[in-house]
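Re-run requested by the PI after the first attempt was lost when the workstation crashed. Everything re-entered from the original request form. Ligand of interest: pyridoxal-5'-phosphate.
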Amino acid sequence: MLDREKLFRKGLVDIKAYVPGKPMEDVMRELGLTEVVKLASNENPLGPSPKALAAMRESLDSVNYYPDGACLALTQRLAEKLDVDPQGIIFANGEDNIISLISKAFLNEGEEMIMADPSFSSFEISTRAVGGKVIKVPIRSDFITDLEAMAAAVTPQTKLIFLCNPNNPTGTINTRPQVEAFLEGLPDHVLVVLDEAYKEFVEDPDYPEGLDYVRSGKNVLVTRTFSKVYGLAGIRVGFAVGHPDFIGGLKRIREAFATNRLAQIAALAALDDDEFLQRVVAVNKEGREYFYKEFDRLGLPYVKSQTNYVMVDTKKDIRQVFLHLQREGVIVRPAYIWDMPTWARVSVGTMEENKKFIQALKKVLA
Ligand SMILES: Cc1ncc(COP(=O)(O)O)c(C=O)c1O
């Protein structure tokens, strides 16, 4: 350990930092390309919600004022829309910020957090940052999160379970009967966080409504984001819904102005942009099906997805495929970071972007 690193909290230097999708600007600069398609971070290929964009444009000249720290107008509108108690909602600077707030608020040093492996890496980072212990439970061979094994991993030291449904990076869901049986069997010293970042893309009728578990008084928090279906990843808005007692605890340690002024204005407008939401979901479905058809033609295994990304097995060293795809102007997420050395996670883009990716993939694999 370096001298300066000794000053850090115990365990901090062992934390692996979050690896974001490679930015387009970096690839363009490094490879001298003028056009690059980024299908690496599950962003919205149709841009931001037009209603959100218009509302932000109208409000630009008010950014000299602090935002409303409590997000009152946005909270009220969301509570109506979701039919939940406004006291049971908290907004923050993206869902990522909510995840780290939850770890800070609930985990004592040494307490255990259970997550699927692979799943969203923020669960691990936020747990380690507060001295919690990370328990990873491998997914099943059909790529579905193994709730029976996760339940079996619960000990008297377990405090949190992060259940990503649909799961990132696999794109699979746990069904209502699976989640219900899981929740029923848990002791009451355990809090389950249902991460529903990709909820709007799910088609499976057996997908559970996480808010029902909040309404029925279970130890459950539901977390969601405006980054995906509403196209607001760059402005950062995420929220949690839960019992007002849980949410009250989170509010004690939230930064005073965690959700910025433009973000609140954008999210409020986006909530009423149903037309955009429907278009995004339709374009995504078409793109997903196009990917399946092309992967079938190429004889590449893939995981059927309920989200805006698909995992595909290129059957070649993904580090090499990733580099070659970049030279063709396409950025995907190489899955070696999840110990899947021949797989890639590919976000669904516009049809033009999807075709560019498939063309590049064919060239690279040939
Ligand atoms: C499963 C999951 N949860 C949470 C987030 C974070 O969302 P946000 O952009 O609101 O921080 C992401 C972002 O990719 C995600 O994939």
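Saved to the shared folder this time. The chain is about 40% helix and 15% strand.
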